[in-house]
Structures are given as structure tokens and as C-alpha cells.
């Protein structure tokens, strides 16, 4: 046997037979004392390029200059310290000594510079977020000059897509070379990632010898894999299985409030949604309590806005309610009337397309609920399920609404979401929202260093979003995972950024 382990080959129930047979052959070589775990998730990875995908950071291959802890505070990672002396336009980062890439090459400021230059070259979203004008490297000192003062730059460098990699290595999509505790040894897009320990890791050897990341969008299949021992850690098992998993002494569950929000996007390219009354009408069609209680099986809180209620930049909201009658009133204000069972304006029935995606299975159900509610008012909604919603909405305008999910405050700060969702060129502004009052608040926020003033400006911005219903925020889902009791030192990350660390261990049988 290659090793004693908790689980390696995924069963036929996971519809990954090919991966299983490959794993079975791998199991026969090696020694019995090596440690390995299998992590099964609901998010597929088509590439390991860290500048385009989060998996390389989640799997411990690549690391960022700055990281975030569970208290949402910034911490040094590959940069041991940083400072600015001109209100955030010029930043100096000190890169750790004695860090090597997994090919043995030293990490210095020049390597970081080249990685960041590649990052903004391949990712328009990161180019927009980082606003880099110039980068200088001198041994372990990295100087970044931004196009304008950017007081929150260190928090932007927490983003997994800013991970540092050796740009001289060419097979970045399948085998990126990073500085983390694990390096990839095999990758099948959308299916499987195999990892081995990097013994030269700067922060000490990992406790595991090997790890396997696999994917299945079927939540029930993920649950079965854990129960059968074919997976050791399962991210987002079936919601309805949480209580039964808690009752199993061989399984541990982690359920924590997440930083994620499920929301409804409006495509402002469609003239229909340029009308605030239409957006407000759809907001009244959302039954948030039913979504939290039924679709989310109680594993969510209703959302009045993008951020959790205890954040210092969350305003007092007018409580959101579900009301067909109030929805109808807003459609009336927008010039719609009922004719022959259809909601009509200028002789044209209101017929829309909503996009959704399956690897968060509650989102299609939310789309179906909205479709049912809209039908009562004579609105026809076609549901289209897409495989990669980010790619679809970035390239196409033939959609009207979309159910979407994202971490709105991954760094404990409002600026990421506000810039991404409401500024021109933002990574999650496919509906081309353009509100001058909101843009002004966000621009002022971006230029402000003092935390109290930043929170005040962010709160004003969120109030504008709420008043205009630029998005409809539905629920804040819990983050949950389950794992075999023999897994040690593993913790569910609020940010969802860090999954496989050097400290994760297993008890050998």
C-alpha cells in the first residue's frame, strides 16, 4: 500500500470513475507511513493559474504578499512589512528573506515585481483594482507607485489573484510554481488536483505528504463521499444533511456565518432596469424569509444589504419585505399595466431572462422562486443555467437578471465590493451600473486613509445602493463544511481563501 490514509479513491457515486481508477493505481506505490487527505469541493477549477483562479492559493501552492486572519485583520505573508509616507500613492513592501519558489529559486523584490506585472497584464480586473503606475525592485525592497492615492492597497494584495508565482516557468495553467507548502504533481481541469509537500517551504515543512483536491457539483454526492470515507474534508455538503452529520460521531462539522451574500443582479444595459421603480418592484418580489428558511434550510440570514449587520460601515436599512401588492404599485409607477394576463408597457409584454448556475444549488431555486412570483403579476421569466456565469456576463448582454453569490467583504473592508460592483470596469459590474453620486462616494473612499472616515463614506455609499436598489440582496448564507474526525488542525476559513495549510494533519489508524 502506498500509505495509510483517510480516503483517496472517489466512488462511482461521485461520477468520477476515471479519477478513481487513477488514484487506485497510485495507491499501490510508496510507503505506508505517508499522510494524505482528499478535499472535495463544489467549485471546479479549469486552470491553476493563480492570476485567474483562486485554487492555487486555496491549495497551498501560491501565496500573496498580505493575508487576512479570522478577525479580518491584515497580516504579513510574503511581505513582512509595508509602509506609505504620502497618503497611499507610494508603498514600500519588505519581502521576506529566505523564501524560495518550489523550484529552489530565491524570492526577491524583482521576482515579486515581475509576478505583479504579469498579474495586471492578464487580469483586467486586477489591473483596475491595483491601479499600478510603476513598480521598482531593489533586493528585498519593493516599491509600488499607484496612479492615484490608494490607501487600501495592502488589502487589495490579499486577493488570491495577486498571488506570487515564478513567471519564468511556462506551464502556469497546470503547474504554477509558487512559494507555498505544497506543489502540484497532477491536474485534470474541472476534476482533480494532486499535490505533494514542498520540503523547502520557508515556514516549516507541512505535516501532510500528499493531498488531493476533487470537485463535484452534486451536494448529495459530496455528502455520500464523506460518509463512505472516500473524502476526508467536504466543502458544502448538502444543506439538509447538516443535522444528520452532526449526529455522526466519526464526522465533525463547521458552520460559521460567512462573508458571502446571495444577490440579484440587474442588467442596466436593458432599458427596463434603468427605471428605479422596476428594480424596486423586483425587490418586493423576493421572499427573503422563505429563501432563508426553506431553500437554505435555515443556514442563512436574510440580507437587507451587501454586508453583515455588525460591520462598522453597514447603515440602518429600511426593513425589506415581500409584497406582490407593493411590487405592482412600482410597476404602475414605471408605466406598466395588466392586459390579457400579461404585464405590458407600450404594447410590449414584459418578458425577461434570468441567469443562474448550478455549483451553488440554491441559486437556481431562488431563480425559480422569483420566476413563480413574477408570473403572478403577468411577467414571463426564462431561466438559463450557465456553466461559468462570470465569463458569460462579462462577454454577453443577452440577459436581464442574474442570481449571483460572492464574498462582499473578504478583507473586512467595504472598498473591494464597492469598487468591483459599482465603478466603471469593475470585475463584477457586468450590468454597467453608473451612478454619479455613488461614484463620488467611492472615489472619496479610495482616497481616504483614516479608518473612521472610510467607514463613514462606505456607509453613505451603501445607503445610496439601498435607496436606488442597484442590486437586491437576498441572504447571507452560512459557510459550512464537514470532515472526518481524524483530520486535525483544519479550520473553515471565513474568507474561503485558505484551505490547505502546512498545519493540516491526520491521525494514522
TrEMBL record:
GO terms for cellular component: ATP-binding cassette (ABC) transporter complex; periplasmic space. GO terms for molecular function: peptide transmembrane transporter activity. Residues 1-24 form the signal peptide. Residues 73-423 form the Solute-binding protein family domain. Pfam families: SBP_bac_5. The keyword Cell membrane does not apply. CDD domains: PBP2_NikA_DppA_OppA_like_3. One of its GO terms (biological process) is peptide transport. Keywords: Signal, Transport. Transmembrane segments: none annotated. Belongs to the bacterial solute-binding protein 5 family. This is ABC transporter substrate-binding protein. It comes from Fictibacillus aquaticus.
Amino acid at each position: 500500500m502506498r500509505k495509510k490514509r483517510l480516503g483517496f479513491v472517489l466512488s462511482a457515486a461521485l461520477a468520477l470513475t476515471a479519477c478513481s481508477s487513477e488514484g487506485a493505481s497510485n495507491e499501490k506505490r510508496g510507503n505506508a507511513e505517508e499522510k494524505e487527505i482528499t478535499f472535495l469541493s463544489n467549485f471546479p477549477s479549469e486552470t491553476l493559474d493563480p492570476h485567474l483562479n483562486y485554487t492555487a492559493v486555496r491549495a497551498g501552492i501560491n501565496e500573496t504578499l498580505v493575508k487576512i486572519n479570522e478577525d479580518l485583520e491584515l497580516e504579513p505573508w510574503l511581505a513582512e512589512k509595508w509602509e506609505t509616507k504620502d497618503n497611499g500613492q507610494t508603498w514600500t513592501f519588505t519581502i521576506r528573506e529566505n523564501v524560495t519558489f518550489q523550484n529552489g529559486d530565491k524570492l526577491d523584490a524583482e521576482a515579486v515585481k515581475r509576478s505583479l506585472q504579469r498579474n495586471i497584464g492578464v487580469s483586467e480586473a486586477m489591473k483596475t483594482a491595483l491601479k499600478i503606475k510603476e513598480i521598482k525592485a531593489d533586493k528585498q525592497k519593493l516599491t509600488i507607485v499607484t496612479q492615484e492615492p490608494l490607501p487600501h492597497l495592502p488589502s487589495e494584495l490579499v486577493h488570491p489573484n495577486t498571488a506570487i508565482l515564478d513567471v519564468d516557468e511556462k506551464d502556469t495553467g497546470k503547474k504554477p510554481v509558487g512559494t507555498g507548502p505544497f506543489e502540484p504533481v497532477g491536474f485534470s481541469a474541472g476534476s482533480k488536483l494532486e499535490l505533494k509537500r514542498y520540503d523547502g517551504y520557508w515556514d516549516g515543512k507541512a505535516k501532510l505528504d500528499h493531498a488531493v483536491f476533487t470537485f463535484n457539483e452534486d451536494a448529495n454526492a459530496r455528502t455520500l463521499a464523506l460518509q463512505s470515507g472516500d473524502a476526508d474534508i467536504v466543502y458544502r455538503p448538502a444543506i439538509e444533511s447538516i443535522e444528520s452529520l452532526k449526529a455522526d460521531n466519526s464526522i465533525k462539522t463547521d458552520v460559521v456565518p460567512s462573508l458571502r451574500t446571495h444577490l440579484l443582479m440587474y442588467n442596466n444595459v436593458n432599458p427596463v432596469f434603468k427605471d428605479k421603480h422596476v428594480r424596486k418592484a423586483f425587490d418586493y418580489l423576493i421572499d427573503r424569509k422563505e429563501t432563508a428558511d426553506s431553500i437554505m434550510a435555515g443556514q442563512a440570514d436574510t440580507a437587507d444589504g451587501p454586508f453583515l449587520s455588525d460591520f462598522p460601515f453597514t447603515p440602518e436599512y429600511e426593513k425589506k419585505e415581500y409584497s406582490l401588492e407593493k411590487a405592482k404599485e412600482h410597476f404602475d409607477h414605471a408605466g406598466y399595466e395588466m392586459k390579457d394576463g400579461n404585464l405590458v408597457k407600450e404594447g410590449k409584454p414584459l418578458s425577461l431572462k434570468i441567469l443562474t448556475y448550478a455549483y451553488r444549488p440554491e441559486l437556481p431555486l431562488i431563480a425559480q422562486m422569483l420566476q413563480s412570483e413574477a408570473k403572478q403579476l403577468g411577467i414571463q421569466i426564462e431561466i438559463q443555467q450557465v456553466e461559468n456565469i462570470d465569463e458569460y456576463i462579462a462577454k454577453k448582454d443577452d440577459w436581464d437578471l442574474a442570481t449571483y453569490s460572492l464574498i462582499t467583504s473578504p478583507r473586512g473592508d467595504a472598498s473591494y465590493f464597492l469598487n468591483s460592483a459599482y465603478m466603471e470596469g469593475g470585475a463584477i459590474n457586468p450590468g454597467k451600473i453608473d451612478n454619479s453620486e455613488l461614484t463620488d462616494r467611492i472615489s472619496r473612499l479610495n482616497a481616504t486613509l483614516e479608518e473612521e472616515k472610510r467607514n463613514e463614506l462606505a456607509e453613505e455609499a451603501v445607503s445610496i445602493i439601498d435607496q436606488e436598489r442597484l442590486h437586491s440582496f437576498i441572504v447571507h448564507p452560512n459557510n459550512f463544511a464537514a470532515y472526518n474526525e481524524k483530520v486535525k488542525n483544519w479550520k473553515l476559513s471565513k474568507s474561503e481563501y485558505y484551505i490547505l495549510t502546512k498545519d493540516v494533519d491526520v491521525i494514522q489508524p
